Amino acid sequence: MSTAGKTNLLDFDRRGLREFFAQLGEKPYRADQVMKWIYHRLVDDFAQMTDLGKALRAKLADACYVGPPRTLFEKGSADGTHKWLLGMDGGNAIETVYIPEPTRGTLCVSSQVGCGLNCQFCSTATQGFNRNLAAAEIIGQVWVAAKHLGNVPHQQRRITNVVMMGMGEPLLNFDNVVTAMSVMRDDLGFGLANKRVTLSTAGLAPMIDKLSEAADVSLAVSLHAPNDELRTQLVPLNKRYPIDELLAACARYVSKRPRASITFEYTLMKGVNDQPEHARQLVKLMRRLPSKVNLIPFNPFAGTRFERSPPEAIAAFQKILLDSGVLATVRRTRGDDIDAACGQLKGQVLDRTRRQAEFRKRIEEGAAHAA
Ligand code: SF4
């Protein structure tokens, strides 16, 4: 089937799909019917949408298509974690990971091909940035995983949570991420509760304010250090948005959501940020807003200069937080036998050098717009 000149319906949320159907001269309820076929029954062929008339099916086949990303490779881990390498245009590929647990199933979704933020402990960063993913390529990751897992929204939920924590900084692909998260939370889409969709950011403070106007989702922040000097070394974006500014934006975000808290991710690296003094500094920061800390033992990857903190250092760090009344959990490492653990996603990023410079410029401009 040729898709040339046709519109990918995965690029739309409910409102966008209704507008597209209006342009075709069709009623909104027809868009809703198609949305259910796509996300509840995971059908990508109009011919199978049997409650649509033949004429409408033919019209749709002429104008549009349902185009999830191609699966280039997939692999299951011994612990049930499953990873997909999904092909994008120009030889690029991104990774999506499913992590099953006894009471939930979490899908970790990518937002960009590569990432330009250059966090020093991140495997994705070593590949540079190529481009933003389209909304279809973001929600398409959920679609591919849902189809593989036999997920049925409202009935047989295999995917109960989605975290925008894969490759890329989601707030730098704002519109497409917001559209995709809308489909994740729509009853006609994947029907997830707002709090079960989490956006994780490296800390673009002005964009956090913008997000609070556009989507009611859970927020996670990649903190990784308790003071500006160390954080700027590990997360270079901190130079532009230091911790004070970042936490102020987080406090504004959470103030609009009673009962919500912000999750702060803190990757523990041996001798770098895992000392008792770091834990005590972190306690002071966490007292400023409703929060919890997710401690992540560093997952080594080829070429990194960092090492995982020893178990006793992790336990001591967590104890200082807990003893001070800060909710802190240690993330169990999953899928490291298939390089699917946190910070290990790499995908395949081509043509990154030219775009890297453009991207850095856009960060400055984009952030300025949002301010
Ligand atoms: S940790 Fe996240 S924001 Fe930082 S480089 Fe990696 S993917 Fe980008």
From TrEMBL:
Its cofactor is [4Fe-4S] cluster. Binds 1 [4Fe-4S] cluster. The cluster is coordinated with 3 cysteines and an exchangeable S-adenosyl-L-methionine. GO terms for molecular function: 4 iron, 4 sulfur cluster binding; metal ion binding; rRNA (adenine(2503)-C2-)-methyltransferase activity; rRNA binding; tRNA (adenine(37)-C2)-methyltransferase activity; tRNA binding. GO terms for biological process: rRNA base methylation; tRNA methylation. Keywords: 4Fe-4S, Cytoplasm, Disulfide bond, Iron, Iron-sulfur, Metal-binding, Methyltransferase, rRNA processing, S-adenosyl-L-methionine, Transferase, tRNA processing. It catalyses: adenosine(2503) in 23S rRNA + 2 reduced [2Fe-2S]-[ferredoxin] + 2 S-adenosyl-L-methionine = 2-methyladenosine(2503) in 23S rRNA + 5'-deoxyadenosine + L-methionine + 2 oxidized [2Fe-2S]-[ferredoxin] + S-adenosyl-L-homocysteine; adenosine(37) in tRNA + 2 reduced [2Fe-2S]-[ferredoxin] + 2 S-adenosyl-L-methionine = 2-methyladenosine(37) in tRNA + 5'-deoxyadenosine + L-methionine + 2 oxidized [2Fe-2S]-[ferredoxin] + S-adenosyl-L-homocysteine. InterPro entries: Aldolase_TIM, Methyltransferase_A, RlmN_N, RNA_MTrfase_RlmN, rRNA_lsu_MTrfase_RlmN/Cfr, rSAM, rSAM_sf. The active site is at E95, C342. S-adenosyl-L-methionine binds at G168, E169, S200, S222, L223, H224, N299. Specifically methylates position 2 of adenine 2503 in 23S rRNA and position 2 of adenine 37 in tRNAs. m2A2503 modification seems to play a crucial role in the proofreading step occurring at the peptidyl transferase center and thus would serve to optimize ribosomal fidelity. Belongs to the radical SAM superfamily. RlmN family. This is Dual-specificity RNA methyltransferase RlmN. It comes from Mizugakiibacter sediminis.
